[in-house]
Automatic annotation (TrEMBL):
Coiled coil: none annotated. Pfam families: Hexapep. SUPFAM superfamilies: Trimeric LpxA-like enzymes. InterPro entries: Hexapep, Transf_Hexapept/Carb_Anhydrase, Trimer_LpxA-like_sf. This is Phenylacetic acid degradation protein PaaY. Gene3D superfamilies: Hexapeptide repeat proteins. It comes from Massilia solisilvae.
Length: 198
């Protein structure tokens, strides 16, 4: 069961087509839109400002969303937030990506179809133009993104759209096996998703 908490009479909203892992925590003024994926141990703490995930966005394992009173922290349509990222009082525009362990601070705007590299620190009020790659601590604009860069990002986001469906349909709590069963199969990702190079 999803951990959802009301505070001051304000209760989270989760669209029925969204998947929220049972170990994630949603508090207060949180709005999760259609087809979103929220991973294990993610925290959306809407006890001050509003937190919004728009359609098809994902918030992966151990991510944190929070903001100051009266602010809206938002991940727009198809936004992609990598493992361990922290979003505080910022905007992540449509089809943008924030890499693993990156931090995006108050008033910052990650432009449409932009990518924040892993472990980057986006300072408060930084405005990242559309289709930009930013990296570093503090983050700086490195270059414009190519069509291939954006297609690569969109393929990754589609994997999370598919994971949303797979999780809603097949994820359940079970007892672990004590050893691998004979002929153990792996996860079938289908022909469209990229696989590790050998």
């Amino acid at each position: 069961m999803v951990k959802v908490y009301e505070i001051n009479g304000v209760r989270p909203v989760v669209h029925p087509t969204a998947y929220v892992h049972p170990s994630a925590v949603l508090i207060g003024d949180v709005i999760v839109g259609p087809r979103c994926y929220i991973g294990p141990l993610a925290s959306m703490r809407g006890d001050f400002g509003r937190l919004v995930l728009e359609e098809g966005a994902n918030l992966q394992d151990t991510c944190v969303m929070h903001g100051f009173p009266g602010e809206v922290t938002i991940v727009e349509v198809d936004g992609h937030i990598g493992h361990g990222a922290v979003l505080h009082g910022c905007q992540v525009k449509r089809n943008a990506m924030v890499g693993m362990n990156a931090v995006v601070m108050d008033g910052a705007v990650v432009g449409e179809e932009s990518i924040v590299a892993a472990s980057s620190f986006v300072k408060a009020r930084m405005i990242i133009p559309p289709r930009s790659l930013v990296m570093g601590t503090p983050a700086r604009i490195v270059r414009a993104l190519t069509d291939d860069d954006v297609k690569w990002k969109m393929r990754g986001t589609k994997q999370y759209h598919d994971l949303n469906v797979r999780s809603l349909q097949t994820m359940r709590e079970v007892e672990a096996f004590t050893e691998p069963e004979p002929g153990r199969r792996g996860i079938d990702f289908g022909p469209d998703l990229h696989k590790p190079k050998t």
